[in-house]
Amino acid sequence: MPNHIGARKLAMAFTVRLLLFSSLFLLPVSVFAQTNGSIAVGDFLTATAANSSPWLSPSGDFAFGFSPLGSNDLFLLSIWYAKIPNRTVVWYPLRDNEAAVAPKGSTLNLTANSGLVLKSPQGDDLWKSGTSGVANGVLNDTGNFVLQDRNSESLWETFNNPTDTLLPGQTIGRSRQLSSRQSETNYSKGRFQLLLQEDGNLVISTINLPTNFANSPYYATDTTSGTVAGSEGKELVFNASGYLYVLRENGGKYNLAVGEAVSARDNYIRATLNFDGIFAQYYHPKNFTGNVSWTLRWSDPDDICQSITEDSGVGVCGYNSICTLKGDKRPTCGCPTGFSLLDPNDPYRGCKPDFIQGCEEDELSRTKDLYDVEVLTNTDWPISDFVQLKPFTAEKCNESCFQDCLCAVAIFRSETCWKKKLPLSNGRVDTSLNSLAFIKVRKDISTLTGAPQPPCPDDKKKKSQTTVIRAESVLLGTSIFVNFILGAALCLGFVLIFRKKHVRSAEIVLDSNLRSFSYEELQEATNGFTEELGRGAFGVVYKGVLQIGSVVQVAVKKLNYVMQEIEKEFKTELNVIGQTHHKNLVRLIGYCDEGQQRLLVYELLSNGTLASFLFTDIKPSWRQRIEIAYGVARGLLYLHEECSTQIIHCDIKPQNILLDDYYTARISDFGLAKLLMMNQSRTHTAIRGTKGYVAPEWFRNMPITTKVDVYSFGVVLLEIICCRRSVDVENNCEEKAILTDWVYDCYLQGELDAVVDYEVQALGDKTTLEKFVMVAIWCIQEDPSLRPNMKKVIQMLEGVVEVKVPPCPSPFARTCIDESFVSQV
Ligand SMILES: *[C@@H]1O[C@H](CO)[C@@H](O)[C@H](O)[C@H]1NC(C)=O
Ligand SMILES: *[C@@H]1O[C@H](CO)[C@@H](O)[C@H](O)[C@H]1NC(C)=O
Ligand SMILES: *[C@@H]1O[C@H](CO)[C@@H](O)[C@H](O)[C@H]1NC(C)=O
Ligand SMILES: *[C@@H]1O[C@H](CO)[C@@H](O)[C@H](O)[C@H]1NC(C)=O
Ligand SMILES: *[C@@H]1O[C@H](CO)[C@@H](O)[C@H](O)[C@H]1NC(C)=O
Ligand SMILES: *[C@@H]1O[C@H](CO)[C@@H](O)[C@H](O)[C@H]1NC(C)=O
Ligand SMILES: *[C@@H]1O[C@H](CO)[C@@H](O)[C@H](O)[C@H]1NC(C)=O
Ligand SMILES: *[C@@H]1O[C@H](CO)[C@@H](O)[C@H](O)[C@H]1NC(C)=O
Ligand SMILES: *[C@@H]1O[C@H](CO)[C@@H](O)[C@H](O)[C@H]1NC(C)=O
């Protein structure tokens, strides 16, 4: 099934990239001021949108200053070719592997005691060259920026601190390196490094970020001492005439590029370690008119798709991908059928399966015919095999993988069958292989349910059915046939409850702390059930006043007596709530159990629900929201781990969280909570909860654990951060309608400002903001095992435990929406 959303997102991402790209490059060529290249101590540059005039070299060939990054008012301190309209950056500083990105208004000062100092508008240090005793700086016509002392001796040079590019006249010695960028437009440290090793060997390797651990090289000059002493490399030289070679200890040269160099007098020449791991030399005429771009003179390795294997680390394209070589020897990355890009904005990050695969999932589905098989020729993932079968036939190879729940792909070649499991790595196309790849692709889940569509559970507000369905399917990360499954699971669930309940009801003993009221008493207290406070799935809540010691305002929940189970439900709830005591939970005062009537009496909280608090025109304060988030988390932790009987709430949402006089969050409505014995951590029950907050496992026939509450908490946390509803198609454009998706996208793009709608208080507390967003993303992981438990959540929120970078919340199915189905609705 085509992934429409994916395609649209991808197209959008491309447009955005293109815009960024053009805005970066279509800058007017700077007006050249007459200069001798010398910069005095005390001189400074400011990062401003337009007409920021950089420091120029005497010939005007090179500029040193701020390059705009995209359209976010961010700048990169850099050196570039001043006369080439398409800005080509040849140097930029890194700080802790990150590009030292400077917000608008940042300043670069040349100081005597610290060299170059880059500060944010708030005065924070962004980067420093270091070094003292500086008399002046010089931007040399070679593109080298040099800090000099009083005697014009060099103290520090950009040539000695290269990033991803070498210029003629530049050399790098042993243990020095070049580092690639993340991508064409992201200048943070990327996955590739070129290093002149201590033994004289010049190597290119992948590194495993965020550490600098280097895998085995996929390119090497082998310029070690070997058999001939003195033949080890001393330095990598890019000489002023444009020749690039490893200079050996004995004076010999190992040329990287063969043949004549292009004229360095008439051309700009550079050698760059590209973000995709290709080390290449380019040239560009100095005297040109119109459209002229960089010409490739030489590059290595010849086929990076083939050269990165096994211990050289995962391929250029990341896991589960397929690498193919373009004409210019640069790699292109794709995903096999049934997989899609992990990050739609970045094809080099790898692919994720659009489905869950594994023995547990296969077993749960209990249907044999789960998979289709896609066949690809000459495509191989040379590692990740777990078994090799020989002699074998192609059919048997396919069959064997098909029957094996561990097997994701089988490769067949010359009577041999390799069965492989996820993640697949180093995938590439190689026409010389003569192989077949059998890829198991999970069938659309809809084709597995032959059941007629049962009536949908409550859908009170369905203004626009099309968009609601679309929104929910996206949210739940399942197919549009959610409703089928929902129904089916409901039925299944109820059967389970029936069985369990019948066994259990006899054991329920009421806690004597609770008061028992007569129906009449409560009728009087609520003035005949007149003032309605709200409605939940199991009944209506009324306001009332009771004389118990003193006059107490109460909320009386009148349960609908519709189903047989309610009786047990009622006793369950009483028994559970009667034993809970926590400041972040609403207290139950008493109950009424008279004939057909079932009522619960709770303390009344003065400040209403979290929903009415959050979703108003005026945002509540950031501090208050933070406190509420902590409160909800603590209440949930208590329910999950601290009370005598573990309670899964199953319906955490802002409507079920109340605020007391002090705006302390108090979780209410345990009406849906399922009792679990402490030693019984996993169970199946009916689908509970409210759409938009419901964890995906409800729809997947997976075990229901406390992690469903963690999921809902994640959604609520995002709502608290953003002060908006989790699904809001009315007030938002398509990409913002689903809060979880939108926030994750913003997070990926580093646009947390947008998430809080540029709210000043929140932006002033960016650490907390970022931390909370990251925790929320951990909580909404589709895979329950990735979600933290509430204890961990609290530790992360409180900063006791470091929050790691969260993965994509829905790697399995960031959903296929069948447009034709939607239009039929
Ligand atoms: C460069 O020009 C500045 C003034 O613009 C002058 O102070 C400085 O001495 C000059 N440097 C050289 C090396 O000519
Ligand atoms: C940089 O120079 C500007 C202008 O002279 C000055 O206002 C600012 O304080 C300087 N910053 C530093 C860190 O020296
Ligand atoms: C550039 O710097 C190098 C080394 O400091 C020096 O030898 C060379 O003359 C300078 N070139 C120019 C054009 O200033
Ligand atoms: C660049 O990539 C790094 C690492 O993936 C990321 O942390 C950073 O936010 C990105 N920067 C931009 C400007 O996208
Ligand atoms: C650069 O190297 C080439 C080849 O080794 C040599 O012919 C040329 O003279 C060198 N140029 C300079 C400026 O050292
Ligand atoms: C640059 O090109 C122009 C026109 O093509 C020509 O007149 C000029 O002599 C060239 N200059 C150099 C330095 O080659
Ligand atoms: C310049 O480039 C643009 C877009 O890349 C292209 O449309 C145009 O034809 C080019 N002009 C010349 C003279 O090559
Ligand atoms: C400038 O860069 C853009 C974007 O990569 C490209 O489309 C265009 O062809 C380039 N123009 C020249 C003259 O290189
Ligand atoms: C692979 O095996 C499956 C299961 O037997 C079968 O449905 C499918 O048609 C086979 N595919 C090929 C290409 O043999």
Automatic annotation (TrEMBL):
Chain ranges passing through the membrane: 474-498
Q: Where is the Protein kinase domain?
A: 527-801
Write out the annotated subcellular location. Answer: Membrane
Task: Tell me which domain of life the UniProt entry assigns to the organism this sequence originates from.
Answer: Eukaryota
Q: Gene Ontology terms, cellular component aspect?
A: membrane
Keyword ATP-binding assigned: yes
Signal peptide bounds: 1-33
Recorded protein name is Receptor-like serine/threonine-protein kinase
Please report the organism this UniProt entry assigns to the protein: Prunus avium (Cherry)
